[in-house]
Amino acid sequence: IEKARRMDPDGDYRLIDEGDLSEFQENTYDLALAVFTFDNVPTMEAKVKLLAEMRRLLKSDGRIINLVSAPQIYTHEWASFSTKDFPENRQANSGDKVRIVMTDVVDKRPVEDVVWSDEAYQETYQQAGLHVVATLKPLAKEDEAYEWVNETRIAPWVIYVLQKVRETLSRKRIVRTF
């Protein structure tokens, strides 16, 4: 945090307790960004709680961008990741721990994540009162200056664009608008 503050003195950097967003005012933010955060949140209950807290902070038309690892990242080889030493990843279900090695860093110890399927994310978002506006699965391009392994055919990551589900009473029934 100190390094971030030195590099960006006008920024607001805080260290908060895990999942505790209570110090932030509700209906204040246009955008919340979570990058690989949910790869390490172990349960549906914990994911829903954190996403519901993020939802609380959004303005009515605000968005959450949630960048997560696709389940396929744990079962294929990549330019900068390897899973060949972890065949058990292939049998992993949502909520199971999986391992992967980053090959482009000095520390080659396995990283442990929690795999979560698209279906599980859809359920998680619904329980948190969020609607998926867009799902993006970016691929690399063959003409790029990298030796891609599977990145041009299989997206290793998924980007979910989320917004609040707004419920209104209409003709004695609840109508969800997006």
Automatic annotation (TrEMBL):
UniProt GO MF annotations: S-adenosylmethionine-dependent methyltransferase activity
One Pfam family cited in the UniProt record for this chain: Methyltransf_11
Domain Methyltransferase type: residue ranges: 13-65
InterPro entries: Methyltransf_11, SAM-dependent_MTases_sf
Protein name, as recorded: Methyltransferase type 11 domain-containing protein
Organism encoding this protein: marine sediment metagenome
